[in-house]
UniProtKB/TrEMBL annotation:
Designated name of the protein: Replication protein A C-terminal domain-containing protein
Predominant location category: nucleus
Family recorded in the similarity comment: Belongs to the replication factor A protein 2 family.
InterPro entries attached to this UniProt entry: RPA_C, WH-like_DNA-bd_sf, WH_DNA-bd_sf
Domain Replication protein A C-terminal, residue spans: 3-95
């Protein structure tokens, strides 16, 4: 009787050996958050800004041209987020950006 009651609750439960692992392969859209806490879109924008060697930084128009697979609104949201979080800053005007990382 005791062994039957112990086996019943586990029959309806999901295994807990790998909690959350069911979503580990879901890389769809911009929802995947890498280890640095940024979305895929934010990482793409940040990496392009970091790669720019010009003293004035990367122009928003150049950024949009390099990220044609993203909507203008998505690029703008990523730039706004990165700026608000201190990852990038504007330089000569509101459309030029540099990374705060000294790379």
């Amino acid at each position: 009787m005791l062994s039957k009651s112990n086996s019943q609750p586990s029959a309806g439960k999901a295994p807990i050996s790998n909690p959350g692992m069911g979503e580990a392969g879901d890389f769809g859209g911009n929802n995947f958050i890498p280890a640095n806490g940024l979305t895929v879109a934010e990482n793409q924008v940040l990496n392009l800004i970091k790669a720019c060697l010009r003293p004035e930084g990367l122009n928003f128009q150049d950024l949009k041209n390099q990220l044609q697979h993203m909507s203008v609104a998505s690029v703008k949201l990523a730039v706004d987020f990165l700026s608000n979080e201190g990852h990038i800053y504007s330089t000569v005007d509101d459309d030029h950006f540099k990374s705060t990382d000294a790379e």
